[in-house]
Design a protein that fits this description.
Two copies of one chain form a homodimer. By secondary structure, the first copy, chain A, is α/β, with parallel strands linked by helices. In chain A, 29% of the residues lie in helices and 26% in strands.
């Protein structure tokens, strides 16, 4: 089959690889009908060392079950399934607590160890715990929005929960990528009163307004902090969703949080230490977040997608075939696409 | 009157200073009957630059109201009052939210700007919002425990709340100072199942056992992390109370927190950045805490003290007169005393 292989920074290729096979009895093989390129894929795309182990990319997918192992009991061949970006057994104490991204037996797709879903098919470990059967046809028009439940919509929701968004709250979202935009949807959905997005690209901030953002701050650094203060009566935001992952972004997040507020960081951190340890302390700002247990959120978010109350699929502004995936990486890296949907 | 003045590192003196006077109509003057030396006083005691502005030290007190301004309505002369370490108006939106340490008009005692309570008397700004009338006599035997509600007991409670301690939780307390010991009391009080204290001094860890600690880890750094992992089935603690304030302590706190766990940091941070930004992210560990709004906690904790269910006053293991305060600083700095109570 064909699959996406990252060889080094800037060097992503579509290659013919062996078809995936059932290895463990708990595995399923899924024929991928739609996948995504993720903003987080751009980190290795830009930074991966040459001559290291290759990575089979992709961690978001909807597909059709092609085969199941003898230990899989909740799925059958031909089921249409949603694949979260992490696999998890669904039974360990972390899974029971709704933190499937810390599953004792789990892991992540699209790593050096576990081949990813930007491919014609993917092996899904711990299939019973991982996959969710979708109650719709694979060609349904709402497929893009459903696909975001694999990662970005669940991740925006996680940021909002960890930042303690709720009715009446003032929320700031740092970053206008797909996760930031889904963070706006999540904040609106959870009842936020004011939603300020920090982003610089007009097409994205326009979309954020459709999703419920009330204010756009398009400056950066100290200027952005000043502007958010102005927009919040000098006090800052109750809840800050950090959806970038740079040191500058987390610093801005801390500086725009109001005393007693909370930050949900979901941008994969590319910083060793969290800056502003003293200001965050003196203002009792809580710093939370991490890899979103999107598996835990699917049941809650799915009805809103199916009944059309939220349309996170609008962040998928390009659709490409598998052979065009290298162009998709370039388009996202140059910020010409918000997020690319891949139809293998 | 006599008061404690810090001139520079290691140079603390008892000096005659002008008696405090009412300045604002919302002020009260309180005759100090008992005060404390705080672990946090040791930071400037060790690090204060020479030739800088002097500091009138002390931020914990019980005393008797000597005079009130024309704008004070809830207090009267001769009331026995408890003074939290921060003053606050009790009416701003942060005070209403129970975060009096971020009061818009508030501040802290014992700073360069606001004279402290290791003195014969102290001026209390915003007296209505700040002071709490005690329903007991000033010579009551439970005075030491009541005095801890000025700071260390409320601070330990804040750490526990921010670390989300609750019934059945496994709690680790980093630090065996007065705050760490009060953190043990708070964790026990909130229903923790296992309480592991990280500390090296046998007299203190003995006291922690009396307070409810179930395990003592007396090694440090990587060894301590390993030991806590062993004590928690390899998973770490749900809740970690960071009661020291060094970079090593917060690093240990992050490394012993279980996935999805929370850290309540109340040690005044002497680090610029919070280390282990990536491990904390990947395990969804929440980092919270800050200056405790002890004013908010007095009503809740007071009955437990008065009815004898908790005895945080046991951390006050030395009592001294005002003239001996310099010896008190030395004793605490050399870890010969846990916490010194001062009777001016």
């Amino acid at each position: 089959m064909r699959a996406t292989v990252l060889h080094g920074a800037g060097d992503v290729r579509i290659e013919v690889v062996p078809d995936p096979k059932l290895i463990e009895p708990t595995d399923a093989i899924v024929t991928v009908r739609s996948a995504c390129i993720c903003g987080s894929d751009l980190w290795p795309y830009n930074l991966m060392e040459p001559n290291g182990p290759h990575r089979r990319m992709g961690h978001e997918a909807i597909g059709v079950v092609q085969a199941i192992g003898s230990g899989v009991h909740t799925l059958k061949v031909n089921d249409v399934v949603l694949m979260p970006f992490a696999f998890s057994d669904g039974t360990c104490l972390f899974c029971q607590d709704g933190l499937q991204t810390s599953c004792i037996h789990g892991g992540f797709f699209g790593t050096v160890e576990v081949p990813g879903a930007q491919a014609e098919a993917v092996r899904v470990p711990l299939a019973d715990g991982t996959l969710v059967v979708l109650p719709v046809d694979v060609d349904d028009a709402m497929m893009p929005s459903l696909l975001t439940l694999s990662d970005v919509m669940g991740t925006g929701h996680h940021a909002a929960l960890r930042a303690r968004v709720g009715p009446g709250k003032i929320v700031a979202v740092v970053g206008d990528g797909a996760v930031g935009l889904c963070g706006v949807i999540a904040a609106r959905r959870l009842g936020a009163e004011q939603i300020i997005i920090l982003g610089r690209r007009p097409d994205r901030t326009k979309l954020s307004s459709d999703f419920g953002a009330t204010d756009v701050v398009s400056v950066r650094g100290e200027e952005a902090v000043e502007r958010v203060r102005q927009l919040t009566g000098g006090l800052g935001a109750h809840s800050v969703l950090e959806c970038v992952g740079t040191e500058q972004a987390i610093l801005t997040a801390i500086n725009i949080a109001r005393a007693g507020g909370a930050i949900g960081r979901v941008g994969v951190p590319h910083y060793q230490a969290i800056p502003a340890a003293e200001p965050a302390f003196y203002s009792n700002v809580t710093i939370s977040g991490g890899p979103a247990p999107v598996r835990a959120y699917i049941e809650e978010l799915l009805p809103d997608v199916i009944e059309g109350r939220i349309q996170p699929g609008r962040v998928l502004d390009r659709v490409m075939g598998l052979d065009d995936v290298p162009d998709g990486y370039r388009a996202m890296n140059e910020r010409k696409a918000i997020k690319v949907m891949v139809k293998p």
